[in-house]
Amino acid sequence: MPNRSHAVDRRSDRKIGIKDVSREAGVALSTVSHVLNGTAPISQEVRARVLEAARRLGYLAKRQQKGAIASLTTLYLAVPPGNRPHNDINLVSWTMLTQLSREAERRGVRVVAHNGSAELQAAEILAGARAVGAEGIVLVFDDNPKLLKGLTGADLPVVLLNGEDPAMGLDTVAPANRYGARLATEWLLSHGHRRILHLTWRGRSTIMRRLDGFRDAYAERGLPQDQGEVLYARGYEPDQAREALRDFITERGGLDGFTAVFCAADNLAIGALTELRAQGYAIPSDIAVVGFDGVAPGELTVPSLTTVRVPLDSLAASTVQMLENRLSFMNRDYPACRIELGCQFVERESGGSFVSIA
Amino acid sequence: MPNRSHAVDRRSDRKIGIKDVSREAGVALSTVSHVLNGTAPISQEVRARVLEAARRLGYLAKRQQKGAIASLTTLYLAVPPGNRPHNDINLVSWTMLTQLSREAERRGVRVVAHNGSAELQAAEILAGARAVGAEGIVLVFDDNPKLLKGLTGADLPVVLLNGEDPAMGLDTVAPANRYGARLATEWLLSHGHRRILHLTWRGRSTIMRRLDGFRDAYAERGLPQDQGEVLYARGYEPDQAREALRDFITERGGLDGFTAVFCAADNLAIGALTELRAQGYAIPSDIAVVGFDGVAPGELTVPSLTTVRVPLDSLAASTVQMLENRLSFMNRDYPACRIELGCQFVERESGGSFVSIA
DNA sequence: CTGAAAGCGCTTACAG
DNA sequence: CTGAAAGCGCTTACAG
Questions:
Q1: Residue B339 predicted with pLDDT over 70
Q2: Are residues A61 and A106 in the same domain?
């Protein structure tokens, strides 16, 4: 094996030390040290100034990384074949994987991708991870119970990214799907919509959490659940959204009183926009369209897509952090950890923006 | 202010260094350094041996702490008056607060308790925290929306422990209540019970998640929801559980076919045990009783209490860790983080243990 | 991967 | 809280 210079990866910023911090904060070197270690009583103002400078210069982050970095050098990444970049036109997968490698690179962690059977197998993944000397495994986009069970209790820590484990055998990191969907639906309700169509598909349990959130919003306002309806597409690709909507409109002879479509993914929303416009509906005046994911293409559609942004970068960061925590300070009996990160509503054109009436 | 020797708190274990690790692992000093920093290619076996030794000696943990410790010296703790130790016979509150101070102490963090109005007020809490120079706030057992909203976006990071924030404005750390309740209910179902009474109270939203989990278990097996029933006590104290059960039995003229009581808290379960025994029922043969919390008294009841253990120590650790993460490496726009930790089913006597029949 | 050695960055004790 | 100084622990380069 060639003598890869690991060290280079790890200090992209050339040696920021407490000397730099002391200069930046305008205090003595020793004062910085005392603040950082709590070894002497320092006034609140100076403390704050020092910490602020240390954070700004990236010194705190560097120090934190140095503490954790030891344990994770190689991360084994298992992605279902259907979600690998060359097989998947879904930008969510692509962006999430990109963020994950970027985060790994930032920490000097090598990423090795799993390549196995058409369907992911726990034993294969574990063997692959051991073969390359990985200290931890990240499983993405997959949460079939058999696979999760097979990975539970393995001698390597495993984090499931963007999936859920009902048995709580594995640590998981996911966007707050239910919350985000409630947020979007509530936004539509607060803008006067009552008949909202939720366009989704059954493929992933995390996507089903968005359906839960859709219902939560109605429940929270005490509105009858049947004002909202659910329309299932056969997949998550734009064309499948078009197909589902086309059938819906044909069957009902029009929009049937619906004034908004809330799509469980931007991909579906893009299909919805296309189909609705093709059928001559104006967006958002005839019907509002809201997506979920917040990936790039939504900015470029006409009209631009109102959506819920999933914090893909933070999800990647939390995932790697979780692995490092497991490796460096959590003991074996620390319970499984389920992490959800907040999503943000992004108001653009397709959702409309008439004055709030509720 | 006296010259408190902060440093002492922080190295309870007297200076474990890489020299100790190298001895423990049986390798050269330089090898340990290379492993910890990835500065040279080291074989998988040696790496593993070194890391194992470093973890065992607590060196990894020490290093990790050193990275984060800087930013948090004083933690401001806000507890609703009703849950403060002298007003509360509930061991959950007591244990959780104890674990939190223990964790803080372990990290050399000073804890200052808030003392304000009968009802917690956001502005008061923030003022109090600033007055003592705290870098972060932990709010426990309270999740009234107005309070949470008032603390959202504050210039100090706030973590809500054992509560939920539907608006996801704050970071939260809580046990996986829904999961734990499903686990317990499923255990009862798998042991042949069908008519299960869920004894709970309406006081806290986190407790209501346990009701969700109770229902999940029925739903998962495709059993009719009305086989399980919910009985509300007027509070969470043993006597209030007794009262609720007494009324129930009087009203129905007996147990009405129920073969198990699943209580949303050990406190309620203890009351249930007392009342059921007082009325002449044998536990678990006439009726099984299962609690939730896993605090000490459940081991001492007769029969001992089958329950779901909440990882109070890990919850405290995650809470402090969360604050430190916010302070040292998460930037302002890192989204709010919701953390749930897994619970564990603890099989003792009161739940029975006949052979699994399903 | 070892082991001795040089060097660096941070910590610490102290006078001001 | 400063600043100069001693010292410690870890890192690093190198010969074996």
A1: yes
A2: no
Across the range A202-212, mean pLDDT stands at 93
Q: Are residues B152 and B196 in the same domain?
A: no
- How many angstroms separate the CA of B346 from the C1' of D3? 60
Q: Are residues B47 and B142 in the same domain?
A: no
Beta carbon of A18 within 7 Å of strand C? yes
**Quick one: B203 exposed, middle or buried, by C-beta within 10 A (0-12, 13-18, 19+)?**
middle
| Cβ of B39 near strand C (distance < 7 A) | no
Inter-chain CB proximity B176 and A338 less than 8 Å: yes
pLDDT tens for A31-75 read 988 888 878 888 878 888 888 888 888 888 777 777 665 678 889
Shared domain for A10 and A108, answered yes or no, is no
Q: Within this chain, do residues A215 and A293 fall inside the same structural domain, yes or no? A: yes
Name the B residues in 292-321 with CB < 8 Å from any A CB.
311, 314, 317-318, 321
**Torsional sign, CA B74, B80, B84, B89:** negative
The verdict on residue A346 lying in a domain is no
Please report which helix (H) or strand (E) contains residue A96, including its range. helix A91-106
- Asked if B15 is an interface residue toward chain A (Cβ–Cβ < 8 A), one would say no
What average pLDDT does the segment A193-210 reach? Answer: 95
| Residue A354: predicted pLDDT | 54
CATH number of domain containing B290 = 3.40.50.2300
CA distance B342 to chain A (A): 5
Protein CA at B18 to nucleotide C1' at D7, angstroms: 17
Show which of A53, A70, A87 is a domain's final residue: A70
Domain count, chain B: 3
Does residue A291 carry a pLDDT above 90? Answer: yes
Instruction: Find the CATH number of the domain harbouring B12.
Output: 1.10.260.40
**pLDDT range class, residue A3, cuts 50, 70, 90:** very low
Token digits of residue A217: 């919003």
Query: Would you state the pLDDT for residue A274?
Result: 97
Instruction: Select from B31, B51, B64 the residue whose CB has the most chain A CBs within 10 Å, as the one to mutate to test that interface.
Output: B64
Q: CA of A41 and C1' of C14: distance in angstroms?
A: 16
Residue B354 domain-assigned (yes or no): no
Å separating the CA of residue B17 from the C1' of nucleotide D8: 11
A135 within domain boundaries: yes
Q: Is B337 on the interface with A (CB under 8 A)?
A: yes
Rounded-to-integer distance, Cα B40 and Cα A133, Å = 15
The reply to whether the CB atom of residue B302 sits less than 7 A from any atom in nucleic acid chain C is no
Report strand pairing: A337-341 vs B337-341.
antiparallel
* Residue A343: per-residue pLDDT: 98
Give yes or no: residues A198 and A282 share one domain: yes
Note whether A36 and A152 are same-domain residues. Answer: no
Range of the domain at A285: 177-310
Question: What separation in angstroms does the CA of A24 have from each of A36, A59, B181, B331?
Answer: 15, 11, 52, 19
Q: Tell me which of A272, A288, A310 is where a domain ends.
A: A310
Residues in chain A: 358
Which stretches within B279-353 are classed as H helix?
Answer: 297-300, 312-328
Instruction: Tell me the pLDDT tens digit for each residue of B71-85.
Output: 788 899 999 988 877
| Contact with chain B for residue A211, Cβ under 8 A | no
A261 and A320, same domain (yes or no): no
Q: Is residue A352 part of a domain?
A: no
* Strands in chain B per DSSP E: 74-78, 110-113, 136-140, 158-161, 171-175, 196-200, 229-232, 260-263, 288-290, 307-309, 337-341, 344-346
A230 reaches B (C-beta below 8 A): no
Nucleotides of D under 7 A from a protein CB: 1-5, 9-14
B 253-292: CB under 8 A from A: none
Query: Going along chain A, which residue ranges are E strands?
Result: 74-78, 110-113, 136-140, 158-161, 171-175, 196-200, 229-232, 260-263, 288-290, 307-309, 337-341, 344-346
B 41-80 residues, CB < 7 A, strand C: 41-43, 45-47
